[in-house]
Design a protein that fits this description.
Elements: E1 2-5, E2 16-19, E3 29-38, H1 41-47, E4 64-72, E5 84-87, E6 119-122, E7 126-128, H2 135-138, H3 141-155, E8 163-166, H4 171-182, E9 186-191, H5 194-202, E10 207-210, H6 217-224, E11 230-235, H7 242-248, E12 249-257, H8 271-276, E13 280-283, H9 289-302, E14 308-313, H10 317-325, E15 332-336
Parallel strand pairs: 8-9, 8-11, 9-10, 11-12, 12-13, 14-15
Antiparallel strand pairs: 1-2, 3-4, 3-6, 3-15, 4-5, 5-7
InterPro entries: ADH-like_C (IPR013149), ADH-like_N (IPR013154), ER (IPR020843), GroES-like_sf (IPR011032), NAD(P)-bd_dom_sf (IPR036291), Zinc_ADH-like (IPR052711)
Domain Enoyl reductase (ER): 11-335
Protein name: NAD(P)-dependent alcohol dehydrogenase
């Protein structure tokens, strides 16, 4: 089979085309032929050597996609050949609360990922995709979409009276925007691009703030809300934005910390406001298979469409990575096999 591997992890140029023997399903496994795969920020970070620990040069990258089961191993009854499936990238987190053990099987990190003509996956972690949903609607859900669901629904218990603040227009923020609107909530979103903010308004954003025009964007949000602030803040900016996230938060707000963006500032720069507002600050790591099942049901029930910036062909994977890394896009960057 054709595949791409990480190589020396010195940058995007390390991504190398290769060929491998077709995988054979072990007991409990299914072999899936990817149809459409989706880039996330850590895919670029891994190639640059800034995410995760040491990786073998032969590791096949990419953590989210949709594909068709082509064979199954001994004892597999959950799926059958011909099923169209997705899989959370923490493949062993099936249900229940988070445990650090989920990092032991992380697709595209500890185990080979989706950027190949075939991938071996644990059958128990696979989810059959409803016929009504297109590949594009589900290929980019396993990371950003599932994380947004966990943040809003499972962790923050979103309700219609909430104002959700999304930092930037990355994958988690756009997924959260769409999910929050299906729950009747209002959404505020930030960006350095007026063009991206206009698209966000078309997607349903109620408040848009250009953080280059308004470096003190928390104060601008407070102006828009009459001093009330945001009930849920999706903190995707990293350590250096935490101070403004606290300043933008309403009393009793939930600040959900997502991702591992570096920074120079202290973890909680305004300790007094953190206490005075009775804030909850919680980190999350993606989500479980059970959460993914609920997310897919919500996508189907509300006919939520994925915003796709650009789709590349398989042999163009390095170009897709470069386009994604330039960060000029809005929406998912995908690779079709």
């Amino acid at each position: 089979m054709k595949a791409f591997q990480l190589g020396a992890r010195t940058g995007i140029e390390s991504l190398t085309a290769t060929t491998r023997p077709d995988p054979v399903a072990a007991p409990g496994q299914a072999i899936v032929a990817p149809r459409l795969v989706s880039l996330i920020s850590r895919d670029v970070q891994i190639l640059r050597g800034t995410y995760g620990g040491p990786q073998p040069a032969e590791r096949i990258p990419m953590s989210e996609g949709v594909g068709e089961v082509i064979s199954v191993g001994e004892g597999v009854t959950q799926v059958k050949p011909g099923d169209r499936v997705v899989c959370g990238h923490f493949a062993t987190w099936l249900d229940g609360k988070f445990s650090p053990t989920v990092f032991g099987h992380d697709i595209g990190i500890t185990h080979d990922g989706w950027l190949a003509e075939q991938v071996a996956l644990p059958a128990a972690s696979l989810i059959r995709v409803p016929d009504a949903l297109s590949d594009a609607q589900v290929a980019g859900l396993a990371s950003a979409g599932l994380t947004a669901w966990n943040a809003l629904v499972e962790t923050s218990h979103i309700k219609a009276s909430d104002l959700v603040l999304c930092l930037g227009t990355g994958g988690v923020s756009l997924a959260a925007l769409k999910l929050a609107k299906t729950h009747g909530a209002r959404v505020a979103i930030t960006s350095s691009s007026d063009e991206k903010l206009e698209i966000a308004r078309q997607l349903g954003a109620d408040i848009t703030i250009n953080y280059r025009s308004h470096p003190q964007w928390a104060a601008e949000l407070m102006r828009h809300t009459g001093g009330a602030g945001a009930d849920i803040v999706l903190e995707t900016g990293g350590v250096d934005t935490m101070g403004q996230s606290i300043a933008a938060a309403a009393v009793n707000a939930r600040i959900i910390v997502i991702g591992v963006s570096p920074g120079q500032g202290p973890a909680i720069p305004d300790y007094l406001a953190f206490i005075a507002k009775n804030l909850t600050i919680q980190g999350i790591a993606n989500g479980s298979r059970a959460m993914f099942v609920d997310l897919i049901a919500a996508i189907e029930a509300n006919d939520i469409q994925t915003v796709v910036s650009k789709t590349y062909r398989f042999h163009e994977a390095p170009e897709a990575y470069r386009y994604f890394a330039a960060a000029g896009h809005l929406g998912k960057v995908m690779i079709a096999l």
